[in-house]
Amino acid sequence: MTATTVSSTTVSTGVGELLDLATSVVDSAGPGEAMEVFVTRGTENEVRAYDGAVESLTSADSSGVGIRVLLSGDDGNRLGFAWAGSLDRAVIDAALADARDNARYATPDPDVVFAEPDGTAAIELDLWDDRVLTVPMEDKVALALQLERATRSADPRVRQVNSADYSDGRVEVALASTTGIRSTSRRTTAFVSVDAIAGEGADSQTGSGFSVGRSPADLHPEEATAEAVLRATRMLGATKARSGRCTVVFDPRVVSTLLSVIASALSGEAVVKGRSFFAGRLGETVAHGAVTLVDDPTDARAFTASSRDGEGLATRRNVLIANGVLEMFVYDTVSARRAQTRSTGSAVRGGFSGTPSAGCRALVLSPGQLGASEVLAAVGDGLYVQSVTGIHSGVNPVSGDFSVGAEGLMIRNGVLAEPVREVTVASTLQRMLQSVVAIGSDLTWLPGVAAGQTLAIGDMQLSGD
Amino acid sequence: MAEVFAEDSVSSGAMLDDRRVEELSSGRSRGAGIRVVAGETTGFAHTSDLSEAGLLAAAAAAAAVAKEGGRKVRTVALGPVDLHGRGVKTLPSSVEKSAKLDLLMRADDAARSMGDAIAQVQVGCGDSRRRVLIANSFGLFAEDDQIRTRFNVMCVANGDTGMQTGFESLARTEGFEIFERFNVDEVARAAASRAIAKLSARPAPSGEVPIVLAGGSGGILFHEACGHGLEADHIVKDASVYAGQMGQLVASPLVTLVDDGTVAGEWGNFAVDDEGNAPSRNVLIENGVLTDYMWDWLRARQEGRKSSGNGRRQSYQHLPMVRMTNTYLLAGTEKADEIVAQTPNGVYVKKLGGGQVNTTTGDFVFGTTEAYLIEDGHITEPLRDANMIGNGPEVLRRIDAVADDFDMTPGTCGKDGQSVPVGCGQATLRITGVTLGGTA
Q1: CB contact under 8 A, A277 and B44
Q2: Architecture of domain B2-199 in CATH?
């Protein structure tokens, strides 16, 4: 294993080539023109097993470039962007011409600038595992087949395995700008996931499980199987519940999803543009005193860890909510200038076809003292939610309105009881943050921008019959 | 079966945010996906290297995966497709960027003119041209040139009770000429009035209530309640509540549901699907009876039938799978205002957002973005956003009125990590009971 993010003087050939390419484009910037070039190259493999055989196997390389051009003038800078799914020089030149032309039409804005090195040293992280490359494809195929077989035979009530997938990838990124940014990074990922269908009579229920790591050797397919089977089988016989107000206990995977929605309201960009319910509330108590929320991409345990942000600045540990008090927002360079502050190293970008924006990358809600079962015991009666649906249609990070479809089990006398489906749980994000009843100690690292743990929230509206 | 799917796509977009033209963007992508199917196994590789060597390397990778020997090479070339034959009059790439920006400014003004409560306006427009060529070892050779143009407005209104949002979009598989027929001011005003209306909204009710969905409110109901469940990939894996239900009554007799990729100009329209097959008008449910599923080539082959033209993929980097195109409920004969008048108490949904379904259980959610109480047969107070939840076949059986005011809405459908443009359509209809996930 080698370091993932390295300074430009010690880059390995792969990312070094990319940085050379990015730098050569940047060097073509003309007078009065600033430029930022993001170059990425990756390889992905995906195996899907079904019914004892390989249903599909995908193996592919992809690469691309994203170019931002700034034309400076007396009344501000004008930004243009273009991307291309190729590293061919002629294609890059065409994209560059597009970016330059696009910049001519933007509104001049003194706050639109590129990041400049800010003196914060990047914490180098080890996010690369050669075994993604060296483990033979046959072994990866065998992983998917074994996952499917094990899940099918784990419980007599499993009547179908809808999908059993192994996937991995490696990605290398280089970023260069006329403002002195030179950044490279690389990472590997490996993933198994399985969807099980359990049946009893006419009743069918589903459950999914997964395991993630930096290489196939990190994966625990048996845990993915156990999770998928438990989630599917314990839902058998589920019925609608009675409407009413109750305490809701969310499982770690759901909590990760909830935190990712809250993260979008903690984006300095959303705040400065008046699109966050947190706007104007810095220094105020916005959550229960037990809530401390930290975005820390420098923690290598986070699947989404990264030593540098989407503009090439060092990522850092940002404490957003401390003991219930809203301490700060996350900023990229432009939103920070608009808010008259400095970038928090929180630029995120969706690959080469996206431009940077401010966002959280690795949120952690500080764990409490109680284990998952102790949280249930403390709650006594309520609803345990194992999965939610409709996050995008029913949760609004601007107004804070929260309404999602839910399935799970009733909590009776402090333990899990009968399964429940086709219900919704609703509140507002503002009220939910204030109504925390218990935070579990069972912090779980998950793919996505947030880790999760068991979390109990009081006084939510359950809608069913 | 061996197949090459070549794709050349260009796109452009512009965004006006907080009265500033923040970003104009352009994108280009070109490449080929090569699929080899041997027995039940599919091998797939893609490349952005369209040289003969690049294609052969990808083909070898795909074939090795599918463990298929043999080597047949057909030479193919991207040729022109008659766009005028497809109804496209003005290629968006031929339009001055300043003309696009004028539209954004106009919409911004129109949104802000709706009232001082409008605090933020974000206007975006975009267009894409996607040329595809598909050739396979059965001798199929097909190509298409797909032009899409979209425009959307998002408003934030600020009031004593906090902030509310309103969104509206226009999207067609057509060129820039859509702006001759559709007024961007109206798109902006719809988004702004939606946000403003919700400032005085009360929490939505909790529990089962009668729902009247307005014509063109989103049509997402059918997309989620049965559309996904009628995709053959879920059927052949017995992962849908609609598996084994052919010929059965699965909905109210008022329901005749069609998926139709041929509807010119609609967001889910194309000349050939991403496996080279022509789209068709497929009646999925007729008078409440399940009559067909949707098929791509792979799943149709397993059942010894033909593709229904529903094999789609996000790009050359993705395997095709069964997808919806334009999915709609045929209009009824009643009048929308009479349906409301005949609903003593309930909720009137003027606009829906997105939704999600578990095809195996049939449970689905869909969210409101503009809704009102119905009291004594009258539309009254606005309600805050909430999700509704129901079970597909149960909800479809509870449709007891369908009006004649049919309209379509564009949307983006996500499945297995791939997004494709789709259309949804319906007239005003009533469901006798759905669980509404409000807080009141």
Answers
A1: no
A2: 2-Layer Sandwich (3.30)
